[in-house]
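Quick question about two entries, pasted in order.
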Amino acid sequence: MTTSTRGAAKTPAVLVLEDGRTFRGRAYGAVGETFGEAVFSTGMTGYQETLTDPSYHRQVVVMTAPHVGNTGVNDEDPESGRIWVSGYVVRDPARVSSNWRAQRSLDEELAAQGVVGISGVDTRALTRHLRERGAMRVGIFSGDAWTGVRDEALLARVKEQPEMTGANLSAEVATKEPYVVPAIGEKKFTVAAVDLGIKGMTPHRMAERGIEVHVLPATATVEDVYAVGPDGVFFSNGPGDPATADGPVAVMQAVLERKTPLFGICFGNQILGRALGFGTYKLKYGHRGINQPVQDRTTGKVEVTAHNHGFAVDAPLDKVSDTPYGRAEVSHVCLNDQVVEGLQLLDQPAFSVQYHPEAAAGPHDAAYLFDRFVSLMEAERA
């Protein structure tokens, strides 16, 4: 990625998809060029949490909401220490930020962090195109990166980029050194959290429930996990293709062998699927946003949930499966397309969901899942 920040708002820009379709607009954020996988997010709010979610590493995010940036940017809402999206696509950026918590504009933040974006794009047409053709590689070009360069040459640059299938990205976004998030109030449990691209709100939600969270790198071994004396083990969300995550899968299998209470979110759900012997596959255009309907098949209740995933677990919906670690079943399912959204073991304390119960940003319908994790640790201790 090459960037500059001068005169972005008046600089022409172009978005080039790998199938040759182009969209012209104006530079938004930094000026230059960037590449990634084009995906769309249906969230009406929460753009700051989206931008800083490590699961969006190497993705160019198209916002379906037409007006973006009106609440500006603050230092309280980021889910990590930086913006992770490779590029940003909006239709109508706010001219002025208007919120009592705003400290700067979204445009300024994108430029400061070198994130190349484009505005003035027909995001409805672009989203329909991605729904019909699927997520694909894309490039955004502005300034010197576009001036005097033929569209054919830009398309060739896009096609040179690596695809998301086969991408092993967790170690690129995870912490390099372990750290501890202390329990809020009385400490009740210790959890080892394997960071595959964890969002900041996730250990906070556990800390609210009296859990001391030891966040470990994606490369953590089973010895590293049990060195903290955990009452439970957690595997986080993260970017990339779960088919490449052999290391985390092996660690999870070791945890399952010891029957330690286990909870996984998003990438962690795919890791559990692989650990149990199920396959994974790439969705046509994925689930991204904060309005996805999911049914908890245990209770029958329907939750409105926050999603960010382009891969899913291939597990049977209509039966209980035998695995090396006991019986397993699909616990949650997306009501839009019947994609697996959760797994649970019936003979030991382990479960996972494909979505984001930490609600950053998003509805709080799924907060009970953290309480379910606590209940598993309480039962194991008893």
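Here is the second entry:
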Amino acid sequence: MDTIASFFSFITTPVSWVIVQFHTVYGAIFGPDTGWAWGLSIVSLVVLIRICLIPLFVKQIKATRAMQTLQPEMKKIQERYKNDKQRQSEEMMKLYKESGTNPLSSCLPILAQSPFFFALYHVLNGIASGKTIGVINDSLLESARKAHIFGAPLAAKFKDSADTLHALGATVTDVRVVTAIMIILMSASQFYTQRQLMTKNVDTSVKTPFMQQQKMLMYVFPIMFAVFGINFPVGVLVYWLTTNVWTMGQQMYVIRNNPTPGSKAQAAYLERLTGHVTHHGKVRSRGARVIVKAIVAKGRERNEAERKFINSLTKAGLTAQADGNVVKSDSQAVAQAEDGTPTTAAGAPRRQQPKRQSKSQRQSGTKQPHEGEPTDEPSAPSTSLTKSEEPQDTAPAPPKQTPKPGSGTRSKAQSGQRKGGQRPKSPSKK
């Protein structure tokens, strides 16, 4: 461990300088030799480092979103090579290379803060051994050795002997109780953060090697913290516990406001967004508009939660636009009547379809008026005759006229129609 810490010694001076600056501020409030002054200095160092790592965190989110866009392709590869795991892994790596994504990009924040972690460990180890390091001089070294956090010295370790702890002004019981509680909290926060990511913010419809790695890390990291935690000074435990709490809060914010498509977190987010949009009639936040825009662009590729969101908007008379905004649907748009009364398109009178004419009406050329339409033409006489009304003497039908040769028009006889009105049929005899 000393070899690794020495490798990162180039950053020891900046880290010690930052701690001393924060100690100057908190020492003026709580006293320079108190554990509050030194403990809050370490906490402030964590907050400063994590703020500086926000650009890397944004890059991590973008890389994660890029991985999510590859989910359909990953699913196809899994189905195509489901019996050949080696070929499946090769095709996955080829897909990562072609798309420019890296499944290990989620480890960037951890890798970036590793130098600061080892530098802080080197500083606190120097305090425990009574050696000045960085900008920490003899007076600051003596002040840090006197500082206790809940009865445990800043440089004390879980495995330190009773003589070493007595020299630091503490007992074995106090140090081991405090360090054990901090190790448990540190491991539990790490496990909860990883479990929250796996259970709420992962698309379970597609299983990738990356998901298996994350699931393995969910159990490996807490065990690693528990094993190595007994060799960490109390100051390093404060540092690592603070950064775990920061990561947990940061992860909760991302899961709530920018969930992974197809995850349980997205279903909960879209349910909240549906209530908000139907209440206000629009999408207010920029992040929500980006999510709605992505859902609209998917079309038929939407998952169940996204289809439910679109259907809920439709039932509320709203339509999601391609730019992420939400407007009122045309079928529910309010129209202004002539008398000034607002009416909806759904309440407008339906268009009446004309009644179908009978065969005799079509042949006689009589037009059937629409419902409510006045007509000046007399109604066509009924063609149905009873047996008593049938005329006894009927005139012989006129002879057919032969069309002139060379005529360009067909006669009615050739077209199958009779000249004049159609002769009524005799009623069937019972």
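Reply: The two ends are 116 Å apart (CA to CA). The chain has 16 helices and six strands. Hope that helps.
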